[in-house]
Amino acid sequence: MSCHYLGECDAIPGQKIPLFLDRISCGFPSPAADFCERSLDLNELCIKNPAATFFVRAEGYSMVGAGINPGDVLVVDRSIDAKHGHIVVAAYMGELTCKRLQTKPTLCLLPENSRFRPIEILDGSDLQIFGVVTNIVRRVVL
């Protein structure tokens, strides 16, 4: 995973975008999609703790099973205590990575792609958890 700092969270201006109450069918189109009830601020939706939130861009294929693809922007919250099952941004032995945290029965960083091996955290190893991934931002059209 490669870290690219995208800027201060509180420097992002709040911008309200229309939010439609009807859900979009991924099968057949809904004719009721013309009704807009309120607006939505993506900062409000994705960022609970602005002072503790940062963005990183994902690289590689080890987390595709969790819906994280190369080029995705991960929203990471440093204020959340990382628990078993959380997807975290961590440094292990000086290398940054994004993996699922396993705390039991043993401490491991788990990939979400069977082509990659779990990273066993041995006693005395240098592991730092930088934060918990709370959201994924992905561009669909280039």
Quick description:
This protein is mainly beta and 142 residues long. It is 4% helix and 36% strand. It has one helix at 42-46; strands spanning 16-20, 36-41, 53-57, 73-77, 87-92, 95-102, 108-110, 119-120, 127-137.
Question: Nearest-angstrom radius of gyration?
Answer: 18 Å
Strand percentage lies at 35-45%
The low-pLDDT segments are 1-11
| Assembly status | single chain
Number of strands: 9
CATH topology of the domain at 48-137: Umud Fragment, subunit A
Total of DSSP H or I helical runs spanning 4+ residues: 1
CATH-scheme architecture of the domain at 48-137: Ribbon
**How far apart lie the N and C ends?**
21 Å
If strands are numbered along the chain, what order do they take across the biggest sheet? Answer: 3-4-9-5-6-7-8
Query: Secondary-structure element sequence?
Result: EEHEEEEEEE
CATH class of the domain at 48-137: Mainly Beta
Provide the residue-averaged pLDDT: 82
Decide which structural class fits the backbone: mainly beta
Topology:
Elements: E1 16-20, E2 36-41, H1 42-46, E3 53-57, E4 73-77, E5 87-92, E6 95-102, E7 108-110, E8 119-120, E9 127-137
Antiparallel strand pairs: 1-2, 3-4, 4-9, 5-6, 5-9, 6-7, 7-8
Explain what you see.
- The chain is mainly β.
- It has a domain at 48-137: Ribbon (Umud Fragment, subunit A).
- The chain is built from 1 helix and 9 strands; from the N terminus they run E-E-H-E-E-E-E-E-E-E.
- It has one helix at residues 42-46; strands at 16-20, 36-41, 53-57, 73-77, 87-92, 95-102, 108-110, 119-120, 127-137.
- The strands form 2 sheets. The chain has a 7-stranded antiparallel sheet, with no helix packed on it. The chain has a two-stranded antiparallel ribbon with strand order 1-2.
- Mean pLDDT is 82; it is low at 1-11.
